[in-house]
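Possible race condition, two jobs.
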Amino acid sequence: MSKNTSHTLLTEGNLVARVITFAIPVMLTNMLQMFLTTIDNVVIGQFCGSNDLGAMGCASPVVSLIINILLGISTGTAVCTAQAMGSGNKKDIYEIVHTSMATAVACGVIFGIIGIGIAEQSLVWMACPSEMLSGATTYLRIYFLGMPFTMIYNFGAAILRATGDTKRPLYYMIAAGAVNVCFNLFFVLVCGLGIAGVAIGTIVSQLIAAILVCRYLVKTNEVFRLEIKKIKIYPKKLARILRVGIPSGLQSSVYCVSNIVIQSSVNSLGAAVVTGASAQGNYEAFVSVAMTSFAQTAITFVAQHMGAKKYKRMNRCILVCICAVSVISLSLNGLMWLFRDPLLRVFIVDNEAALKEAVLRMSVICPFHIFCGILDVVSGSVQGLGASVSSTSVSLAGTCGLRLLWVATVFKNATENRALTLFAIYPISWICSLIAMIILFFIMRHRIIKRNGPEEPLEPTKN
């Protein structure tokens, strides 16, 4: 494949337009996934009762931990595919695509079996209330039955995004989401299956998404075409994928652990703080998802441009993504602060103490959330370079490690303003990690460029 013949290359055309058109479908896909989780909870809460809703809440950390590990591995697929697309190596692309789908099936089966096996015991370790244990265990076991479908979709979507196509994963998620809602209602209202019905509906939607992404990969005439009968693991390509993917998965899983520790500290501060933090967290998550889409964009753009040896344009890609997250953070967090009272009262009714705590957390997070977005972009850029181990090391030390140390020392010894003391670790960890990640980026960029060779000359007609 000639470097300049495929319409999927991100190394050509108007840079700003490319970044925006790539990132918006990613953003919408992420927001849709958040919305579907909310719908699951609404269905459970409205039609199944508080115990089943609590059971869903107990099961969520286990699901998040496993999913984050496997999504981290799929990042390896995205980076390796994008680098191969940028370099125009057809053989590399073919082997990476087929290795990725074989890995998706293998990971789905292995982690599905593990998840089913540890479902009940993991809930016991988390002190799941006895009246919710049965429902949470049922949900987890059914959910993990569909793990192969989840992995096939996510790895397939990673391949498409790495080639520059973010619209099809969005369309497939919309279709799967519609199926999910319909089957949830059918299994719960018509069949009376309760929380098991929601889990079955989720499996069906995951199957639909997996079929749609595989159908396109099989039928496409592009260089990343998938041949089902030729799916196999190429050891060297698997090693490359795992070299990027495993550290990313580890980074995500440790984030989950650190967040659980912080949430436990929040829980120790009383009901008002817990309620307030939860209310504010809904809006914080919305802004974070919007910013994360540009971090995911940076991974693919940096990887393709590094493969194509277009380093100056790669730098501009990163700057565009940083500008985008800055605008998102300043505008959305500014609006949240301006309309904080009516927004928070959507979740907090007749509880002035909780409202006060929510405003306190918002006052700490909103002004500094921009650093979180920039950190994600720079971290994604380091992963796009293929230096996932280094990125993970900085994240573990600068974010996770620092937060755990803060909770164990500063917060533990605080006697006044304990909620403010706890929430302060978020901006502190973002800023410290960002400084370290920027230094790491320039070090790794220099090393990789030295290894890959000099800049490819840009054509006069290209931007």
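Job #2 (started ~2 s after job #1):
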Amino acid sequence: MIRRIGTRWRRLRHRVAAAWIILLALLVMGGAQAQDLAPYAGDWEGELQVGGTTLPLVLHVMPEEAPEVTLDSPMQGAFGLPGEAAPREDGALDASWSVLGARYEGRLTDDGAIDGTFSQSGATFPLRFEPAEAAPSQAFVPPQDAPYEAGEMGLVVPGTGVTLSGTLTLPEGEGPFPGLVLISGSGPQDRDETLFGRKPFAVLADGLAREGIATYRYDDRGVGGSTGSFEDATSRDFAADAEAALDALRARPEIGAAGFLGHSEGGIVAGLAAAERDADPDMIALLASPFEPMDAVLERQSETMMRQMGLGEAASVQNMALQRRLLAAAMTDGTREEACAALARAARGAPEPVQNQAGKLCTPWFYTLFRIDPAALYAQVDAPVLALFGERDSQVDAAANAQAAEAAGVKSHVFEGLNHLFQKAETGAISEYAQAGAPMADGVIAALAAFTRDAAQQ
């Protein structure tokens, strides 16, 4: 996020700050190397001061078994960025994030903090981390006397050799029950779609079971108990996984009508499975799923995040010019190689983080996603579809995408005051996800259950 100190850095610093914004949470890196991290074990919070902007950072140090150091930048939507820890004889913490060109060197202080410096592309800034406040109440734990049964269910995705591992939740009573396959959003997700201690899919499974709806939620390929490679997969591979999960759910004698419930990119995956494959869902429910093309979604996302970061108008204009140039290059007609070449040209001479971003935008996953029109997919779907949005969603603009959904013939509803995780929110900023009081606002699960029951009877 930081360019070299000097005249050129002073001209570029605001532009570079926003260049790090676009979907940094989706970067995937290698794991940490061995180091004695025990003295630094835990979660640490700090604030990086860059060009008049305060950027909260969260450092996670996990020394047990496979040592791991990860970094979150909540304001930028970046979570769990794996780092590499190098051995230091003097006992200092020395962690680096090669894809960011960043490094942090720090040492424990007498008052229990870590004092050190954060450097990137030649620029160095002081950065102090203090122990993060634990918030155990944020994590959802199903009660022991829950009125439903939940158990492990695995399946093999035909023609791939990928095995998915997940949890089947069945309501009390005798079926057949309506059933939903839960499809997670972007990035490698476990079956609960765990984020900042929140477990949205566990909450959905619990709430829907109480409404008489069965669910199946699974670890993404390459995550948790599922096999395969997440890094090499595209949305169409995830659609194959979703179709296999729906087939497995339907094979259960307790299940009647069955369909998909997709969150964020999971909604695009559900559309691909319904429109391009033989999944034939009986219904599709969507939470904060894009209906605009992805370049438009990311452009709006960048504008929103820069506004939330407090960048001035001039800096925002400069930043958006750079973002639009990269997005236009990513949308270049032709092969992926041609798109990658266009992105390299668009980022030529730009700071290192911008060039890293350009490289990520030409990965097979991004290349595929940029060329999918969600509204066109859903215009081909015969099953009943309901799209729900949160008014204060900073990742998928509610008004624009609800309008695009209605234009595609999809019924939509916008919940006032809710964010991307359907929590009550002040601004909708990603940094609020961990602080919101409830895992999911009242009314959302009831709306999903009513729609699913109605669709199951059609």
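Confidence is low (pLDDT under 50) at residues 1-34.
Logs attached separately.
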